[in-house]
Amino acid sequence: MSKAFAGLAGAAGRPVPPREVCDAMADRFNELHEAELRVFPGAHETLDRLKELGVRLALVTNGAAEPQRAKVIRFALEERFDHIQIEGEHGFGKPEERAYTHAMGALGVGPQETWMVGDNLEWEIVAPQRLGIYAIWYDGYAVGLPPGCPIRPDRIIRSLPELLA
Fold first, then answer.
1. Per the omega criterion (within 30 degrees of 0), is the bond before 128 cis?
2. Domain spans, the chain
3. 43-164 has which fold?
4. How far apart are CA 2 and CA 15, in angstroms?
5. Residue 36 pLDDT exceeds 80
6. 3-state SS assignment for residue 163
7. For residue 11, what are the CA distances in angstroms to 22, 71, 98?
8. Are 114 and 130 in contact (CB under 8 A)?
9. What pLDDT digit, counting tens, does each position of 100-153 carry?
10. Mean pLDDT across the stretch 36-49?
11. Gap between the Cα atoms of 151 and 123, Å rounded
12. Cys staple from 161: which of 42, 47, 67, 132, with CB 3.0 to 4.6 Å?
């Protein structure tokens, strides 16, 4: 973390804070970020309705095992998904091809039967589309695609309940 602060301080012509200060700032940021984290509006209701309709669901997320698993539990997602795949538990993650093929295998579906929904254009649109997966970009902040963006999602939604339409 102090490398990041060193780069910022150096660029601004300022002295680098002591390591303890850098660590305390990083820890406090993480605490605040965690406290403010929420599920997207309508997420539970949408997932529950999809399950009622018989849709098999997988959660594919990157990150370390312990904090990601804690989020899954905190936000009551375990019972809403048929398969939960955390990069830190499986040893691979998006945008690696096997992250998608493993999840499809766990659900017993092929690419033509699969939708990928996510907010990362590279990991949840481009990579899945290469496999023939229908890729839906979640534009939760309604900012639209960046100007000149060559990436073309199969569908764009601004709220998760739109998946039910």
1. no
2. 2-36, 43-164
3. Rossmann fold (3.40.50)
4. 12
5. no
6. helix
7. 16, 36, 40
8. no
9. 999 999 999 999 999 999 999 999 999 999 999 999 999 999 999 999 999 999
10. 91
11. 11
12. 42
Query: Residue holding tokens 């899945």?
Result: 128
CA distance 55 to 60: 16
Give, for 102, the enclosing helix (H) or strand (E): helix 97-107
Question: Do 122 and 128 contact (CB within 8 A), yes or no?
Answer: no
Both tokens of residue 120?
A: 């990362």
Count Cα atoms within 13 angstroms, Cβ side, for 63.
Answer: 12
End-to-end CA separation in angstroms for the chain? 44
Q: Which helix (H) or strand (E) holds 32?
A: helix 19-36
Q: What is the pLDDT of residue 4?
A: 67
Neighbour count for residue 138 (Cβ, 10 Å): 20
